[in-house]
Amino acid sequence: MSGLFVELTAPNGRKYSQPRGLFINNEFVKSKSGETITSINPSDETEITSVYAAGPEDVDIAVTAARKAFKDPSWRDMDTTARGDLMYKFAELIEQHKETLATIETWDNGKPYSVALNEDLAEVTGTIKYYAGYANKIHGQVIDTSPAKLAYTIREPLGVCGQIIPWNYPLAMAAWKLGPALCTGNTIVLKAAEQTPLSILYLATLVKEAGFPPGVINILNGEGRKAGAALASHMDVDKIAFTGSTATGKEIMKMAAVNMKNITLETGGKSPLLVFDDADLDQAVKWSHIGIMYNQGQVCTATSRILVQEGVYDQFVKSFKEYVTQASIVGDPFKDDTFQGPQVTKTQFERVLSFIESAKSEGATLESGGEVYKDVGGKGFFISPTIFTNVKENMKVYREEVFGPFVVITSFKTEEEAVAKANDTTYGLGAAVFTQNITKAHRIARLIEAGMVWINSSNDSDLRIPFGGVKQSGIGRELGEAGLEGYTNKKAVHVNLGTKL
Ligand code: ADP
């Protein structure tokens, strides 16, 4: 296959034209090497199509395009209200094409179509609209010092931003990064994850249709170690924003040092969920399920360590098992009642299975699941929702991020022990606390080392609210007003009004 577009019919019958190129300067082009990536449907392991994969030379061409666009008056000097309107138009186009975008996402990633359409796509349009609103509200300050001196600040864009996104929420993660970068006047080279290359290319068609000047948004597919590394180490890229694993985040941080790039990293987690004796147990059970099983467990904030106070431990485990059995319906992601589709790739599927083996060999007790789920046509990367109890703190499954429908449960006696156990991790992304005692809830929220705490819920995320981690879960914040900080510099201008000095 060598064309730049291919006509496809998705499993739900939707026909569309799938771009296959690299999107540079508002055009789809082939990669210089001709290399491609093949995208696999994780539900039945068939090939969907292949797309061109960028190498270092292509990255360089995209960065040059982005640099040129950054300096071009058509973007640099664009009236900020017009910039907001442009972003708003982009969001409206995404809204008009949301069924196709959600179809591609489900086909390529395996997430339930209802989730892709109603949650992911709503988040994409919501985020772009939210930041469109900020475009004409980015301004500095006048800082009074003395009558002889005037000082003011200008919030300037950083320049060319490299954005490296993961496969668990391909379009939503793109939107989280595009929104704040665009409204502040930056230009972008975005690299999608090689596991899910398709939806982002369809999004690229809407970039041109919305009317962004060429080179403002460039979108590449390509392998992390080739295209991603070329972007992170490029001397003419000013910033890298990355979402993915902690190990890759560390590598990117090192590469970004080459020209001292600004960095935002959103990496892994092993987030605790604490259930106290005085919790509303039905709520704790319901949110514990969402907190780990949503999106096939492929969520960086997943509350994958459940810690339950001794008084309600047995009751919690019993109710949780029953709830998971009834609510985690595994199946074809295009079917309406499916809660859990396949894992994204064979590699991820095998990784989760290896953690299941590890838990068994280290002596944890398998409460449910723990096996391949074969009832969806006998193919695909489906795993039964898996619960382990009797998990000890030194076990690999207690300490490492699994990124699947896999949860470990353990117990604690006192509040102090709960906090110590919650914080006994190299990660610090999210944490959930279930108690009906409001002072205890807020006391613990302060003591927990995490970027986000959910009281009586899990994994709430809202585009108006800062998202990010502490410790080895990341650097910087995305979303909300806080998300703008990662995309601007404050330039200070000193004006001398006096004549004596
Ligand atoms: P996973 O291990 O789940 O695939 P990664 O953190 O490796 O997650 O991948 C997230 C994103 O980072 C993807 O877009 C991937 O291509 C990219 N990536 C992976 N390795 C590197 C690397 N060495 N340099 C730059 N980007 C990378």
UniProtKB/TrEMBL annotation:
Keywords, A to Z, come to: NAD, Oxidoreductase
Which superkingdom, per the lineage? Eukaryota
What protein family is recorded?
Belongs to the aldehyde dehydrogenase family.
Signal sequence, renumbered to the chain? none
Q: Which positions are catalytic residues? A: 266
Q: In which pathway does it act?
A: Alcohol metabolism; ethanol degradation; acetate from ethanol: step 2/2
Listed name of the protein:
Aldehyde dehydrogenase-like protein
**A Pfam family:** Aldedh
Source organism of this protein record: Clohesyomyces aquaticus
Residues of the Aldehyde dehydrogenase domain: 28-493
Q: Which SUPFAM superfamilies match?
A: ALDH-like
Output one GO MF annotation. Answer: aldehyde dehydrogenase (NAD+) activity
Q: What's a BP term from Gene Ontology annotated to this protein?
A: polyamine catabolic process
**Upper taxonomic lineage:** Eukaryota, Fungi, Dikarya, Ascomycota, Pezizomycotina
